[in-house]
Write a structure and sequence with these properties.
Length: about 625
């Protein structure tokens, strides 16, 4: 499979996302995939472009056999300014989109966030190249920046919400890191069938338990100290102001030293705050080379994962797995019930305290300081947990299986585009039936169009009509119109599922409409527009098509003709017939269809309507 990665960060950048994406790309390439990466010039350290790449717009490199196309982006040391971020994202997205369009042929695009705008670039490349994209949610934007107060503009908020919905809606699939992320997207009406939980991972051969008294400890004068480590981005989310307050509370413990390794938009302010507070037990150390990361964690006695209140619901720092792999205990100062809290509790690999609570954090540090046996037990538990569930090999295999499945489905749909069996007579027959039928039965049509909406409104109010995304000829998406037969927001919790017998979601008037198929009367508009025919396979929803294709790989062959209001499967199959059985009916129709067969099926459909048997779990005729 040919995979295109579209990512802001990639090796040699040292951000957490750069490490995750680089190692995932390496694993997928190792599994035999042809991987191309489009990324920005290295710029994470200090938000300044690496001198080796300055003065260029685009440069092509190679990383362990993978083609890497790097593009320029606007950078400034004043990264925390909103305008700087916007210019940075716009410049990267513009150039990366151009690079993607001319990067050759691919079968799948994988777009890890943030930024959210990378999803739009993936959409453009996807549409032009005719390949699907998978959106990988590393942090939930714009939720995080809104909670941090970094996005206050009354115009910016709704615009980013619109972009978020657009990216989710057009992605073929979305991967999220945890149950909490999945719940967040479900609350934004993303269909459950479109979501897969795949966690981040850690290289357990690289990050492993090591001797504590190493060169990192000696170089920074930490011998004989009890090291409380924070390593990573020093930004708005990390709540390090309260860590400094905690350090002030522990100044009476001579051997406890707080070590903050990394950089970010808040580092200078925190250094200034530490000097003002007279904290001689806090050391700030700049970003270190990637090869020294195992020694950094090995030098610690415990490590911190801290986030501002509310942020842990939309973010999951991958350093959590790094700490666990190093065999060190975690103190997680995060929201109770968040995914990080739950992981630490379930794995028994650390202690949890609430966010923004220096007193509770100090007490947890004292507990581990006084109990070396507890520290060792928690560290061993963390290492055991990542070895079982969060290695790069285990997680990369999950991506491999998902992308392979999605690519297979996309290939079947593309094949249908080149093997269309939709004959010319069908369009002529559809329009003839529409105009002749309306002319002869106009009084009945008028009454139906008046009284059906009236009864729906009297029972359950508005909306009267219901629109669903369906798949048409060659897999083209269109909106099918129906009279609403279920309660409002019926699928918010259940997702796309067929109605069951005596389904409580179906209204009283809805039961009549569904039994007689009058709920589908507005689909004559779809027939008029050419998206549907009177006779053909049922117009299926994209998420159900994906689900059925997993069990019946040939299911997309139904897309070789326009979907219909009625057909062999609808008439002779039962309401809850399995997909494989319905496919056989549909393929039989595609092979034998002719005007005489269409007219016969229409007559049989009228018979079923008069009997009110469309919802029957038994035979309809």
């Amino acid at each position: 499979m040919r995979i295109l990665f579209l990512t802001l960060y990639f090796a040699p950048d040292i951000s957490a996302n750069a490490v995750i994406v680089t190692e995932l790309a390496e694993e997928l390439a190792g599994l035999g995939h042809e991987v191309t990466v489009i990324t920005a010039f290295p710029h994470y350290a200090g938000n300044v472009i690496d001198p080796r790449y300055r003065g260029r717009l685009i440069q092509q490199d190679e990383h362990k056999g993978m083609r890497v196309i790097r593009t320029h982006l606007y950078t400034s040391p004043h990264k925390r300014r909103t305008l700087v971020r916007i210019l940075s994202y716009i410049s990267f997205n513009f150039l990366s989109t151009l690079a993607g369009l001319f990067s050759g042929r691919q079968d799948m695009i994988l777009a890890p966030s943030p930024p959210l705008t990378i999803g739009f670039s993936a959409y453009v490349i996807s549409r032009v190249k005719g390949v699907p994209y998978v959106y990988n949610v590393q942090d939930i934007y714009p939720d995080v920046v809104i909670k941090l107060g970094l996005l206050k503009n009354p115009i910016g908020k709704p615009l980013f919400r619109i972009l978020e919905r657009f990216v989710y809606r057009n992605a073929r699939h979305i991967t999220v890191l945890s149950d909490g992320f999945r719940a967040n997207l479900l609350g934004k009406d993303v269909p459950p069938q479109k979501l897969t939980i795949i966690p981040n991972f850690v290289d357990v051969d690289f990050i492993r338990p090591m001797h504590q008294n190493n060169s990192f400890r000696r170089h920074f004068g930490l011998e004989g100290q009890f090291v409380v480590l924070f390593a990573g981005n020093v930004g708005h989310s990390q709540d390090l102001e309260h860590v400094l307050e905690c350090a002030a509370l522990l100044q009476d413990r001579d051997h406890i030293t707080f070590v903050i390794v990394g950089g970010g938009s808040r580092k200078q302010q925190l250094e200034h705050q530490a000097r003002q507070m007279g904290l001689d037990n806090v050391h700030f150390i700049p970003f270190q080379p990637r090869q020294d990361v195992p020694k950094i964690y090995a030098s610690a006695d415990l490590a911190l994962v801290t986030l501002r209140e509310g942020i842990a619901l939309d973010s999951f720092p991958s350093k959590t797995y790094t700490i666990m792999a190093s065999g060190k205990p975690i103190i997680a100062a995060v929201d109770p019930g968040s995914d990080i809290w739950n992981l630490v509790q379930q794995a028994e690999c650390g202690l949890c305290v609430g966010p923004e609570d220096p007193q509770a954090l100090a007490e947890a540090i004292r507990t581990l300081y006084d109990d070396s046996a507890l520290r060792k037990r928690l560290g061993r538990n963390g290492r055991k947990q990542v070895m079982q569930h969060y290695t790069r090999q285990v997680v990369s295999k999950q991506y491999h299986e998902l992308l392979t499945s999605l690519t297979h489905k996309a290939r079947l749909i593309r094949e249908c585009q080149f093997h269309s069996n939709d004959p010319p007579y069908k369009r002529f027959l559809d329009l003839s039936i529409l105009f002749v039928g309306h002319a002869l039965l106009s009084p009945i049509w008028v009454l139906l169009w008046i009284f059906v909406p009236l009864f729906i409104w009297l029972e359950d109010g508005r909306p009267i009509f219901y629109m669903q995304k369906r798949l048409g000829l060659h897999g083209k998406h269109f909106k099918a119109f129906k009279f609403r037969s279920m309660v409002k927001d019926a699928e918010r919790r259940t997702g796309a599922v067929w109605a069951e017998e005596n389904d409580p979601r179906v209204t009283r008037i809805g039961r009549i409409l569904r039994a007689t198929a009058l709920d589908e009367l507005p689909q004559v508009l779809n027939i008029l527009s050419g998206d549907m025919s009177f006779v053909g396979p049922r117009a299926e929803r994209p998420e159900l098509m994906e689900r059925f294709t997993e069990d019946v790989p040939e299911f997309p062959k139904r897309l070789m003709v326009r979907p219909g209001l009625t057909g062999i499967a609808q008439i002779y199959g039962k309401y809850d017939s399995p997909p494989a059985e319905k496919l056989q009916y549909d393929l039989a129709y595609i092979e034998k269809m002719n005007p005489r067969l269409d007219i016969k099926l229409l007559m049989l459909s009228l018979y079923v309507t008069f009997r009110g048997k469309w919802e029957s779990r038994a035979n309809k005729i």
